[in-house]
Design goal:
248 residues; alpha+beta; Heat Shock Protein 90; 2 domains; 6-stranded mixed beta sheet; 6 helices; 6 strands; 16% strand; elongated; disordered N terminus; disordered C terminus; binds adenosine-5'-diphosphate; binds magnesium ion; kinase activity; His_kinase_dom; Sig_transdc_His_kin_sub3_dim/P
Length: 248
């Protein structure tokens, strides 16, 4: 069993550069950001329709059932049961709504990307039972170095990478590292699992595609180093200080 410290965050010579973007930052445009936002809107619309919509339909049916029972002169006990059922559906809908709101803007991001990633690592480890260390250097903790869009994009990339590790990697541990070196914010997520071949068609799912789109939207680079022996290292670097000057 490979241990946590064996997970390497340094890029290796065989790194596959998945979406290098060499264009100058000034050319990295609103169009890419708009694309990312548009697919985000589509996802929210889907969540609202599939999850909240289903709850509302169930509530409507429960209330209609209550009405039927009243008209049919049902017993008080039966009416009470139906009313309790309707109330529990309303509570479920409330929880779903809060989950969708939290997902839109995770409250932990108010504390900065470093704290948010630490929280993500802890809560992911708790949910999956897979140990996940998180190391953020001092420079990356400066809340002024990245804007909200950059922070939420990095957070979502890290979350998808951790989900992929839990679903596909068969790893014994994972780790996140965040570093700010000069004008680059570097996020790496590593695991010691079975690796995969990124050039295979089955490796091109929605998750990987969204990650690449997000990184392109930040004028960044996404590099992937994956081997059966060494697990997977996903390394994202985005220009930070310069991006603030250009975009704000
Ligand atoms: N850390 C990982 N370890 C092993 N395989 C991975 C890892 N990350 C991604 N993959 C592979 O890449 C594929 C595509 O991932 P993704 O685009 O997120 O789609 P999905 O997770 O829905 O399958 C996965 O099905 C898996 O085969
Ligand atoms: Mg995935």
């Amino acid at each position: 069993m490979k241990n946590q410290s064996a997970i390497q965050h340094a890029p290796s010579p065989q790194l596959q550069s998945v979406s290098p973007l060499q264009a100058p930052l000034s050319c990295v445009n609103e169009r890419l950001r708009e694309q990312v936002k548009e697919s985000e809107r589509a996802r929210i619309a889907r969540d609202l329709h599939d999850e909240l919509g289903a709850h509302l339909t169930a509530i409507r049916m429960a209330v209609a059932g209550l009405d039927e029972k009243i008209k049919a002169g049902a017993t008080n006990a039966s009416l009470r049961r139906q009313a309790e059922y309707a109330t529990s559906l309303v509570d479920d809908a409330g929880s779903t709504m809060h989950r969708i709101i939290d997902d839109l803007h995770p409250p932990i991001l108010e504390y900065g990307i470093a704290d948010a990633l630490e929280w993500l690592a802890k809560s992911h480890a708790k949910q999956t039972g897979l140990p996940c260390a998180c190391e953020c250097d001092e420079a990356s903790r400066s809340t002024s170095s990245i804007d909200d869009f950059q922070a939420i994009s990095l957070y979502r990339v890290a979350r998808e990478a951790l989900n992929n590790i839990a679903r596909h990697a068969q790893a014994t541990s994972a780790s996140i590292r965040l570093q700010q070196i000069d004008q680059q914010m570097i996020l790496s997520i590593a695991d010691d699992g079975r690796g995969f071949d990124a050039s295979e068609p089955q490796a091109a799912g929605h998750g990987m595609r969204n990650m690449r789109e997000r990184v392109r939207g930040l004028a960044g680079q996404l590099e992937l180093d994956s081997t059966p022996e060494g697990g997977t290292l996903l390394r994202i670097s985005i220009p930070v200080t310069a991006a603030r000057i250009t975009i704000e």
